[in-house]
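Running this now, will post back.
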Amino acid sequence: MSLFEALVDDAGLFPPTALPMADALRRHRADLAAGSPVLTHRFLCPASRLAELRAHLEEAGFPGAGPLADDADRAGRTEPAGRTERAGEAGRAGQAAEPIRLGLILDTPEVPPLDGLTVELVEVPGGRAVALDIPARQFVEVTAAQLPIDPPPGVGLKIRCGGLTAAAFPTPRELGAFITHCAERGIPFKATAGLHNAVRHFHPGLGTDRHGFLNLVLGVCAAVEGRDPVPVLTTTDVGELVRLAQAVPDGTAERARRLLVSYGSCSTSTPIDDLTALGLIGAPPAAAGYGTGATGGRTAGAAAGPATAGAATDPATREDAGPMTKKEEEA
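Update: finished.
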């Protein structure tokens, strides 16, 4: 598995992008057609909005429902072999080979009726696992302050890396402690919120530094090798991060990505654009319009040009994207 394969879940429903359901599904369908291996091609949806999602599926080009997660997903496999490739080929042929694959954000007292929708994972708030009667992976949201925590066998953790205020961002030391905790115990985890760009950068509107998703990935690589992840989490040296990414051994990449399952991003094009600008994946052969372009997943040579660490490359993640309410959560 490459370091960036199946890294990004589609959180287009969440701020600051906060697309309407129909638009989010259309973008997801375009991404599926483009078939970028950087994306998981998994759609994150609050449990409270499943009925709304179902109402828009067919107009977006998805079948209305499908079988529950297959045996590979039940066994905890993040990305069944060939699934992304098959989905991309089907999309280019104008066909929906599979039903939409969901990550469910549990904002209801219990999982609502799925009626055949394919749910691969469930993200649970509150720091405690819940009983699920569906064959999906469970990830329990916790904070660094709650450590140490050992979830039940088969249950992973989820960490929030940012939010709507500076206080919502864990410090590098807190995030590093979480990563080390998971690495030492072999606990898979997901990340969400605040990871808008590849490289750590200062956000003037919030008055704090935002974590970079490349810093996060490399921090996990450090942890699985028994090193402190904090130094790489704190660096803003773009060249150094690129050199480190290019030097990650295959075995380390595989172990790191077994640990870091994926992270949710409200933009599905910005991660691809950032990795392309840094020279860490191949450039897409052509623009794909509303969604993202298809890219290679292999580590490439040096970047074609310098990248700006904190400049979002997708208009949907600009700092002037619009006000957010206190009840909204950032992806």
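Residues 21-34 form the longest helix (14 residues). More later if anyone needs it.
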